[in-house]
Give the backbone structure.
Amino acid sequence: MSIAHYCIFITTIVFYFLSSVWSVGALIKPKRFGLLATNRFMFTGFIIHTFYLIFFCIKDKGLPVTNIFESVIFLIWCIILIFVVVDFLYKLKAVLAFLMPFVTIFSICSILFIGNDLALSGDLQKFWLVAHIIPTFLGYASFGIAFIASIMYITVQRQLRTNFTGTLLTRLPSLEGLDSLIWRTLTFGFPLITLGLVLGFVWIRFSNILGSNWLLDHKVMLGIAAWLVYAALLHLRMIASFHGTKIAVLTIVGFCLILFTFIGTFFFGATHGFRDKASNGQMEEVIILNEEIN
């Protein structure tokens, strides 16, 4: 991949950064920073980001998740996509002031994975792998929006507790609105990640990519743990006495676990998904041999 191709993504980051500055500015000094410019910067970056991913789709002849860098920028794209849908339904522009700085930092961090030797094992053309990845990423993205809403919830609550009555508080959504957003994004993301896990188990069973001890894989175990955290969170949310700050804190913890499951496990010996490119060829031979035997 040439440097010019990566410069395109850097351009995306620049627009996301400008959107971050304008969104925070619109929250603090709305007369100086307009939401129209914020949206234009975000959508411009999102459009460039989309075409960048299309380029990878054509190059890889499949989903743009053949390595960690592609996977991270695909997740970032999914987060923006879910926000666009949420904003269309609920008109919560103030979320941009918290979301875009997170997206910008996450995008900058993704550059660290350029040239990483970890590449996706397995054939991206296979139905079960594609069916596993798409709902999983959309579920992660939905949890990302819930994570941002939870940070906003704690921020607003602290301002209310300290009797802060500035104009900033009036520009942020109400606690009820944020609690509703957290609940809606969690209930949207949970079935998706559940579907992704089930289809992932089917893929593992048919491909035998992780061997007979696949349940002992770090990412599989942490993926199940993350699912249990969100399952418990949604169950507790239905209890009237367990809401507000408690749900917001658990949502933040859950998404941090999601991020570690998504990226961190690859650096702690996980064989799931990505592996060193040098060992990829050997794994493909094993997969082909297993398919011929079966």
Strands lie at 118-120, 274-276. The longest strand covers residues 118-120. Residues 278-294 have pLDDT under 50 and may be disordered. The CA atoms of residues 61 and 102 lie 30 Å apart.
